[in-house]
Amino acid sequence: MTRLLLRADASPSIGAGHVSRMVAYAERAVARGWEVVFAGRVDNAEWLAARFGELSVPVVPSALFEGFDAVVVDHYGLGELREEVNAAGALLVSIEDDVFGRRAADLVVDCAFEPMPRPEDGSGELLRGARYAPLREAVVQAREKRSQGPGGDRPRVTVVLGGGAEWAETVSALLRALRDTREPFEADVLVRGEPTVPEPLSGQEFRIAPPGPGLLDLLVETDVAISAAGVTLLELCCLGVPTAVVRLVENQDAGYRAALDLGLAAGLGSADALDGRAVETLRGLLSDPATRNGLSGTSMALVDGRGVDRVLDRLEKTRMAE
């Protein structure tokens, strides 16, 4: 039996995206009959980490590499690990986002929409592009439900920024931009902390709640999502939810630009410089179903939800070749 160690962390500052990706790996590895262990912190991602329990995947603070056949690392704060992992008798799969989390590995995975050139560092096979994006089973199942399409008298909006409470101010600015479109909508705002909610205009409604396991149920019925350019954006693309994207932090810059260039999302700009252009972008999405349909079709075609299986297939072939 193949033994797989997953290594990632979540926290209010890191966000939950790395753990979300590890859940996707755990699901597909367990489905193959592999033995899986997750090592790391799950603060700020408890609702995602609950899936490990459902899969009977142990969650431990740390783990040695010995005794595993492969180690998947999804972490920006750890350095080079290949020599140590290989010395323990395991293969290293490293997930990177452009230069963030980059390290030499037996398999390197970068699921960016348009990966940048990567310098030679002795790594083995490079698996690059959105076809390798790790999506949880719940996302793939929700994709099928959503194929029927949402509908209603008012556009349904979901605002979801996956980080911690420090983004409450950004959420406040986004809600003001939504209000200023003067378009009717009903918005579910999933955020940690306490954003300032503007007084809605006629036909507008805001509902505030923390992120949780009900997110996908909301997204199935969502006409427009507002999200950061991180892991959640890949999930929204798989679902086909028309999305207005904001760049929260520097490591999202490449993904933000690529999403706009490929016609996957509408751009709101940087979190620290939201202005009238964000209002106009949101007004266009709320008022024009054709624009929404265009974004939906393009994103679903690019992100199909089978990325983890493609990576694990390559991992199995690499192990057999040794």
Oligomer: single chain
The secondary-structure element order is: EHEHEEHEEEHEHEEHEHEHEHHH
Overall pLDDT, averaged? 92
DSSP strand tally:
13
Strand order of the largest sheet: 3-2-1-4-5-6-7
> How large, in whole angstroms, is the Cα Rg?
20 Å
- Tell me the overall shape: elongated
Main sheet attributes: strand count, strand direction, barrel closure: 7 strands, parallel
Beta-strand portion reads 15-25%
Distance between the termini: 16 Å
Alpha-beta content class: alpha/beta
Q: Care to give the gist of this entry?
A:
The chain is an alpha/beta fold and 322 residues long. The protein is built from eleven helices and 13 strands. Strand 1, helix 1 and strand 2 (35-39) form a beta-alpha-beta unit.
Question: Explain this structure to me?
Answer:
- By secondary structure, this protein is of the alpha/beta class.
- 37% of the residues lie in helices and 20% in strands.
- The longest helix is centred in the first third of the chain and has 15 residues.
- It starts with a strand and ends with a helix.
Helix/strand layout:
Blueprint: E1 3-8, H1 17-31, E2 35-39, H2 46-54, E3 59-60, E4 70-74, H3 82-87, E5 91-95, E6 107-110, E7 125-128, H4 137-146, E8 156-160, H5 168-180, E9 185-190, E10 204-209, H6 215-220, E11 224-228, H7 231-239, E12 243-247, H8 253-261, E13 266-270, H9 276-287, H10 289-302, H11 307-321
Parallel strand pairs: 1-2, 1-4, 2-3, 4-5, 5-6, 6-7, 8-9, 8-11, 9-10, 11-12, 12-13
Helix pairs in contact: 1-2, 5-9, 7-10
